[in-house]
Amino acid sequence: MKLLPFAFDVLHLSFVSFTIHHHLPYLAAMEITSAKYLISSPGYLKCPPPDRPEYAFIGRSNVGKSSLINMLCNNHKLAKTSASPGKTQMINHFSIESTSADRNTGQWYIVDLPGYGFAKVSQQQRKQWQQMTEDYLRRRPNLMNVFVLVDSRHRPQKADIDFTNLLGEWGVPFSIVFTKADKATQQEVSKNIKLYLNEMKKYWEFLPASYATSTVKKLGRNKILDAIGEMNKLFEG
Ligand code: GDP
């Protein structure tokens, strides 16, 4: 049985919050004031100086990663929603400025990592992706958390489970973001989330934080931003 590297809060499980709380008004303690594309890097050594907290977003291609980043930043053009899956093979940095309820301003990075699990790439491209991503995830010193995106319409997929297990082996903290929660009924979404977390329980003693999101309904935005705000406080530059 593996232990998560962080003491994740089981009460954050989103199938609970999604079904019970999502009708309630929820004010974010943090708001993004500026979000700009910065640079695309072919490897972790070429990334910008690790002088501020960083959050990486990753998932199978077409999971809704670009849409989620755009929703978080309130900018529908920031990350390109994919025309051809797997097109971008770089580590993409976005520079973010935010303010919190206590009027503290913050600077941090969002990182858009290339998607995994698409069929149309060569063995060599896949190896390259694996190496670049593994190096980045294991060695980037300012990486606070990885948000692993999982499509809430599907039953647990091996590629996602395998990937989160790898993160565990590497000691990289992560949360799960269930995407496209508007596409199925609330019951189906809750069922799939439960199934997914039950599958994770086979490998994990504690479950990570998880969020149900919809970019169409703007669901999950505040909770993710607030979690980032909390983690920003833990950053020691
Ligand atoms: P990426 O390849 O992971 O970056 O995925 P995209 O953000 O490009 O999204 C893939 C497709 O799913 C696009 O057609 C999006 O419009 C759609 N999509 C993404 N998120 C949502 C969502 O929350 N709800 C719905 N209904 N569609 C979504």
Write up this protein.
With 237 residues, the protein is of the alpha/beta class. The chain has a single domain (11-232), classed as P-loop containing nucleotide triphosphate hydrolases (Rossmann fold, 3-Layer(aba) Sandwich), CATH 3.40.50. The chain is built from six helices and seven strands; from the N terminus they run αββαββαβαβαβα. It has helices at residues 14-21, 65-73, 123-139, 158-170, 186-201, 221-232; strands at residues 30-41, 54-59, 91-100, 105-112, 143-151, 174-179, 210-212. The chain has a seven-stranded mixed β-sheet with strand order 1-3-4-2-5-6-7, with helices on both faces. Helix 1 packs antiparallel against helix 5. The longest helix has 17 residues, at 123-139. The model is unreliable at 1-23 and 83-87 (pLDDT under 50). It binds guanosine-5'-diphosphate. Guanosine-5'-diphosphate is lined by residues 59, 61-67, 81-82, 85, 115, 179-180, 182-183, 214-216.
Outline the fold blueprint.
Elements: H1 14-21, E1 30-41, E2 54-59, H2 65-73, E3 91-100, E4 105-112, H3 123-139, E5 143-151, H4 158-170, E6 174-179, H5 186-201, E7 210-212, H6 221-232
Parallel strand pairs: 2-4, 2-5, 5-6, 6-7
Antiparallel strand pairs: 1-3, 3-4
Bound molecules: guanosine-5'-diphosphate (GDP).
